[in-house]
Write a structure and sequence with these properties.
By secondary structure, the protein is of the alpha+beta class. It has helices at about 45-65, 100-105, 135-140, 145-165, 210-215, 220-235; strands at about 5-10, 15, 25-30, 30-35, 40, 70-75, 80, 85, 90-95, 110-120, 130, 170-185, 185-190, 200. It has two domains: about 5-80, Phosphorylase Kinase, domain 1 (2-Layer Sandwich), CATH 3.30.200; about 85-220, D-amino Acid Aminotransferase, Chain A, domain 1. A hairpin with a 5-residue loop joins strand 2 and strand 3 (about 25-30). Helix 1 runs parallel beside helix 6.
């Protein structure tokens, strides 16, 4: 890894140039952050677990007809992905009130929603990823109107699939975030889908299988992710 030049380093991943034109290597770190990196730590093994989990979900989504940037897993920490122009608008889909949404509107955590809610956030660490609207995103040049529509539509399709996927494992999908990129005139799902960017609560117990374990000091994050990995891949009860 030391001989490579990093093109970008984020909170949980490093992006390197890929072996072919139009490709990138996505490297999963063990770093964990919360509250816009005000809380941080190194969680041994987290990157490996997230790499495997994201690979599995991206492959399942591809089987369901959803186009993603994922090409193949290269190693325990690396994925080969398609190079995209990332759209700086994150899409969050909420099925149950929790986190910032619950705090923002004074709603009790765990309140179910009658139908999924799509929210948009400007991807900016400096501004703490502020909530935005379609009109703001378009007017400020972050995305075109058709791109926002395509991202929102795809996010709801992904939500339908993931709710069923997690439900089969006895887990409720509370909310999750997605990122998208531009590729030859179309919008493509990018980044990762892991418990770092999802809220996953065990049905009946409310046990967290997500990064809230780190945010709220609820236990050992590596053991939590290992239990989730085991449940996904049938390696025991989890």
């Amino acid at each position: 890894m030391s001989e490579r030049t990093a093109l970008y380093e984020g909170k949980a991943k490093i992006i390197y140039a890929g072996p072919q034109d139009g490709t990138l290597i996505q490297y999963f770190k063990d770093d964990a952050t919360a509250f816009n990196a005000q809380k941080k730590d190194v969680i041994t093994g987290k990157g490996v677990l997230n790499n495997h989990i994201s690979e599995h979900i991206m492959l399942r989504l591809a089987e369901a007809g959803i186009t993603t940037h994922f090409i193949e897993r290269l190693s325990e920490r690396e994925q080969l992905v398609r190079a995209l122009e990332i759209i700086p608008v994150e899409v969050v889909v909420r099925n149950i009130a929790a986190g910032s949404y619950a705090r923002r509107y004074g709603i009790e955590d765990g309140t179910p929603m009658e139908e999924p809610l799509v929210e948009l956030f400007y991807k900016s660490d400096e501004l703490n990823d502020p909530l935005c609207t379609e009109e703001i995103a378009v007017r400020l040049g972050w995305a075109k109107r058709w791109e926002i529509a395509a991202m929102s539509e795809q996010a709801l399709v992904v939500n339908d699939y993931l709710r069923a996927f997690w439900s089969d494992l006895g887990i409720d999908l509370v909310d999750f975030k997605l990122e998208f990129g531009r590729d030859d005139g179309r919008v493509v799902l990018a980044d990762e889908i892991t418990p770092d960017g999802s809220r996953l609560w065990e049905r009946g117990t409310g046990r967290h299988f997500d990064k809230d374990v780190f945010r709220k000091d609820l236990g050992d994050l590596t053991e939590t992710y290992r239990a989730l990995h085991a449940r996904i891949f049938g390696e025991g009860s989890g």
